[in-house]
Design goal:
The protein is of the alpha/beta class. The chain has ten helices and 13 strands.
């Protein structure tokens, strides 16, 4: 049985909803209190047993590589002080994970970003985390739930949640047959449908497990909505063969790609996770 040992992070987007700060700062480095979004994603993957982090970057994203590296000057300056504890989590990540990077030269959709990461993934099943979607859960985190599900179903899995009907135009929407509690065998997927055309209100969020044939499917699937390579269209080709599960995860998601969601996530972390004394 193939194991999931790599996680792909598409991180080349411009983050235009957060201008002007994202003019020179990657949106994935926006902090929830004192930790950047992408670090939360990496930690989620680590807890799920994944140590290979593959990051698709773009121009102006050097801060991502620097964050997951040792800053010797800083380490020297705070050595022996109480500030060292503030670096304990990132030190653990650097020690236990390997990071690989490639650049997405053109922004042609999430499918294109995932295809760009093929050179980092190879011929194996892999996870995908969109750092914009910050997820919290009691018990197993969302990706851990999905990895356990993959062990049973051995096919692509998309995390889904119910959204207001008027918001379906913001998401990929699935339809399917309920096989078990929270688990759907996907029969169709539509990218950002108008509410009147949406088959359900079950929306795909930024957690995936994909089998390696997805790369060839992305290459051969015609451009979709807005002329982009839509990952939804490629996964739909797998769904036609009954090889996609939609999983209504246990937990809560914050859309940190929007200002409102980012503020909600910041407040949640400050009240429930962050210790003001640190």
């Amino acid at each position: 049985m193939a194991l999931i040992n790599k996680c792909l992070f598409p991180a080349a987007g411009y983050g235009t909803r957060f201008l002007p700060v994202t003019k020179c700062m990657p949106k994935e480095m926006l902090p929830l209190v004192n930790k950047p979004l992408i670090q939360y994603g990496v930690e989620e993957a680590m807890v799920a047993g994944i140590t290979g982090m593959a990051i698709v970057t773009g121009r102006g994203k050097r801060a991502l590589e620097d964050h997951f590296d040792i800053n010797y000057e800083l380490e020297h300056q705070i050595e022996g002080t109480g500030k060292e504890e503030s670096l304990s989590e990132i030190r653990k990540i650097i020690k236990n994970c390997t990071f690989s990077y490639t650049r997405q030269i053109e922004m042609k959709g999430l499918g294109h970003a995932i295809l760009t990461g093929e050179t980092l993934i190879g011929d194996q099943p892999f996870a995908v985390i969109l750092a914009d979607d910050y997820c919290v859960a009691d018990g197993d985190n969302v990706l851990t739930q999905m990895v356990k599900l993959y062990e049973k179903y051995q096919c692509s899995i998309v995390a889904i949640e119910e959204v207001p009907a008027e918001d379906t135009h913001k998401y990929g929407i699935i339809d399917g047959v309920l096989e078990e509690e929270r688990i759907y065998r996907v029969s169709s997927m539509v990218e950002k449908p108008d509410p009147a055309d949406a088959p359900t209100n079950l929306a795909i969020i930024g957690r995936y497990i994909l089998t390696p044939d997805i790369f060839e499917l992305i290459r051969t699937t015609p451009p979709g909505k807005n002329g982009e390579m839509q990952i939804t269209d490629a996964i739909m080709e797998q769904a036609k063969q009954g090889r996609v599960i939609g999983y209504q995860f246990q937990g809560r998601r914050f859309d940190c790609g929007s200002v409102d969601g980012f503020i909600d996530a910041t407040n949640y972390n400050y009240q429930n996770i962050y210790s003001p004394g640190n």
